[in-house]
Amino acid sequence: MPRKNQPLKPGEKILFTVAGAFVVFAIIAYIIMQVVISNSDKPLFEVKTTANLSAEGQQGSYLFRTNGCTTCHRALRNGTNMGQTADLDGIGSRRTMQWMFAFLQDPEKNYPSKTIDHAPGERSAAYVARMPKQELHAIAVFLSELKSEQGSSSAPIPPKGDSPFIDSMVKTWAPKEWKEKYRDVRDDPEAFKRANEAAAQEMTQP
Ligand code: HEC
């Protein structure tokens, strides 16, 4: 028969006290974090993508939301987030309007590799290529107006400023010749512009 009110062994007491202290600590830390967040006027995550929509871009944004694109893609921080390809915020800094217009009409011919969902036939995004040309044009304009700033994950080059960790790793591990061979893009004000142009160029070539 089980005895009631069996006293805890010293080991158990210590174990429960430590576990309890962790729980209490986690709750207090969570409360502090919430208070800090709600009293701070800085956003928790800095937004590094921007969108200045023209009239046609606005129309494209509407078409984008009403034609099922958001079931696979994300733009203006709406829709799904399945990965880099699916997230179209900032795409206007990597691809040109012409490229996107061409891709939407004929994905197989204009995509750098074989397409999965946009391929013609029975694929789930095959309908996109069959949409009216002028609607696809508006969508391409909309997408080309989604820009990313330097430092965004969708930007071609890393954030400005120092990273002590990366700097010390480079100092320790990078061969000397690299210093002469490569320039630090963070010290090069034109690098972001060049990287964007190079990316756009590459994408318009077949
Ligand atoms: C069923 C999922 C799905 C739907 C719906 C869909 N897409 Fe896509 N999209 C993809 C996938 C996956 C890719 C990568 C290419 C591929 O494999 O087809 C892609 C690629 C793209 C790209 C090229 C991105 C890049 O830079 O590589 C654009 C632009 C795009 N889609 C726009 C649209 C628009 C606009 C719509 C709606 C009219 C749409 N997509 C609907 C899945 C989808």
Which descriptors would you attach to this protein?
single chain, 206 residues, two-stranded antiparallel sheet, two-stranded antiparallel ribbon, binds heme C, mainly alpha, 8 helices, Immunoglobulin-like
* Number of helical regions: 8
**Ligands present:** heme C
Distance between the termini: 81 Å
CATH homologous superfamily title of the domain at 49-157 and 194-204? Cupredoxins -  blue copper proteins
Quick take:
The chain has 206 residues and is mainly alpha-helical. The chain contains 8 helices and 4 strands, in the order H-E-H-E-E-H-H-H-E-H-H-H.
How would you sum up this structure, described in words?
By secondary structure, the protein is mainly α. The protein has a domain of 120 residues: Sandwich (Immunoglobulin-like). It has eight helices and four strands, in the order H-E-H-E-E-H-H-H-E-H-H-H. The strands form two sheets. It has a two-stranded antiparallel ribbon. Strands 2-3 form a two-stranded antiparallel sheet. Helix 2 packs across helix 5. It binds heme C (HEC). The site of heme C has 23 residues, from helix 3 and helix 5.
Topology of this structure?
Elements lengths: L9 H30 L9 E3 L3 H12 L7 E2 L2 E2 L17 H9 L1 H4 L22 H12 L1 E3 L15 H10 L2 H6 L9 H14 L2
Antiparallel strand pairs: 1-4, 2-3
The structure holds heme C (HEC).
